[in-house]
Amino acid sequence: MTALRDPIRLIPALFLTAIALGTLLLWLPISTADGTQTAFLTALFTSTSAVAVTGLIVVDTATYWSPFGQGVILFLFQIGGFGIMTAASLFGLMAGRGFGLRDRIATQVERSRLEVGDARSVLKLVLAITLIVEAALAAILTGRFMLSYNFPFGEALWHGTFHAISAFNNAGFSSFSDSVMGFQSDAVILLPIMLAVVLTALGFPVMQDLRHHGVSWRRWTLHTKITVSGTAGLLLGGFLAILAMEWANPDTLGSMSVGAKILNAAFHSVMPRTAGFNSLDVGAFHDETLMANYFLMFIGGGSAGTAGGIKITTFAVLLAVVLSEVLRRKDADVFGRRFGHAVERQALTVVVLAGSLIFGATTYLAMITPLPFEDLLFESISAFSTVGLSTGVTAELPPAGQIVIIALMFIGRVGTITVATALALGGEPRPFRYPEENPIVG
Predict the structure, then answer these.
(1) Region 306-325: what's the mean pLDDT?
(2) Which sequence ranges are marked TM in the entry (predicted)?
(3) N or C end of the chain: which has fewer CB within 10 A?
(4) Is the dihedral of CA 225, 80, 4, 358 positive or negative?
């Protein structure tokens, strides 16, 4: 048991080491555009955001950092994304029978799931998909920047590669000052980025299942069914909500053509789930749109990928539990499979811890800054869920507030892996049980 628990301590240590190295590199004068040494907190914030593949920034990536500094940031979110995906998958395997929460969700009938002996194939899958998708996306974006925007080849290649790696790793960093707002009507830019984000937000357990079983729904594991159907539902719901709420907003969709409205609403329905690119001004959203974003960001994407949030499986488990109580059923089930009590407790634990952390952080930020509460809540959820979208107030936070966001980004990325693994491993059983007595609930 001690050996199995070592990864729980190892993962945060490795990510802290990467953050420290990135901070030192960004702290060097060569990393800034004007050659001056940046503030240590700025370097730490940027390094943490990159390694945690979040995308929140306190300085403009395109103008503040030199080519060397931007290269450091690219390297950090590449290793952060690849390391996170690998660690989440492999340590999910080490937890027992599956990946993260899927370990308890899948039933004994579904023996097609990955076992510890498949660790090598997982690594190969991660590496192959990373190289193929990033190269393909970089080629598409580079060609588009050259042919349609007259970028010189070197500049087009840099912007194309930067956005391809950032999109695949769900990092949300952009080499343009306005993210991708300059390409609001360009489907050739926005659609490939969307597809890359959706793919990696599914998680590698799903990719592995799709590789083995294709689109055969009956042969998919329960985890894959929940993740794919949940992703489709959230994308469609987010698209319809954003399209309806922002249709007439002159600062977002209002002045666009119908086609551009549909494209940008679809693009933004993807981004709050994990990525952080924005083709619309998030700070100009209506309050009801921000509420929809809170929901999408908090849930996040699939387990054992680059997505943040509490994960789709966690939300699905709790939703099934609620429905079973409302319908007065003995078991919580979905797609013809019931959940064990262990996974229900795990899901509840993840949600309560996440909600408590966001509530506490937002309350503290409201105490130390006069910024609007809805903006502070947005930043807190975005940081914890490693989304990277911002209403524009991140840079206005005082040093203490930036430290809180740094902590949220680190805990939201690394903590979800280690907590899920720790819960799956379980603890030592008590040699006794207390007498049962039930309090009044509700």
Answers:
(1) 90
(2) 12-28, 40-59, 71-95, 122-147, 187-207, 228-248, 294-327, 347-368, 403-425
(3) C
(4) negative
